[in-house]
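Please check this one:

***
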Amino acid sequence: MKQRTLKQPIEVIGVGLHSGQNVTLILEPAAIDSGIHFLRTDIDNAPLIAADAFLVTDTVMSSNLIVDGVKIGTVEHLLSALSGLGIDNLLVKVSDAEIPIMDGSAEDYVQLILEAGIKEQTAPKKFMRILKTVRVEEGDKSAQLEPYSGFCLDFEIEFEHPGIPKDTQHYQFEFSTKSYIENVGNARTFGFMRDIEHLQKNNLALGGSLDNAIVLDDDGIMNKEGLRHKEEFVRHKILDAIGDLYLAKYSLIGKFSAYKSGHALNNKLIRAVYSDPDNFEIVTMYDKLDFAIDYKI
């Protein structure tokens, strides 16, 4: 299995979920072993910002990278799409402090990448293989990575709301690119009408609408088209987690289990993995592994 980038650049304009501003996003192919980097095009001599868990210094409602005071916000949906499609090397140019929200899922990014085409490079793809169980907790919330032959995500949320029935609050996902596209990548972000006024007073969710989020009032879902999956809420949390975990800088071999986790705890988990070199090893699919992770589309 080889590293991947794009065959050609992609340019798209969208709205920032929290800023409400129009943003121009350009995705450009990048060299072998360069990884994922972001560049603000609206700032002269802006630093190149790596997709790196240790550069996340703000996790309010999203994962945000900050270097020398320069911010790239809401990176998780794009990173989720890149992880889902196995893109290793990419330069992301953005004209504002936030990645466009698109339809609230990763589906638009998936389609743009597929239209541009995926290029296999000559070097082998690298993975972070989890060797020991690593767990982090905050109150009743938890997130864990443990050894596993493949990449599996098991997530449980907990909401007391008529629009989110109890039997739809858990989902387990065995990763493959095809399954990601069909079952996780199109799950939209969600929020509660009662929280929107407070968020907007704090300059958050200014670009949110029924076009890019599932919105719930006290009685149920306000979106006329309904849900894309009965477990769309928890599937979106898995989408977010895949993006957050890609900030480890490698695709993972392991099982992720979470209860009520969010961006902050997901980030804390990656940092905990890196805190002990015995927790992981970096491998390729040529290292005599007894399984393969399926990136076929």
Residues 232-245 form the longest helix (14 residues).
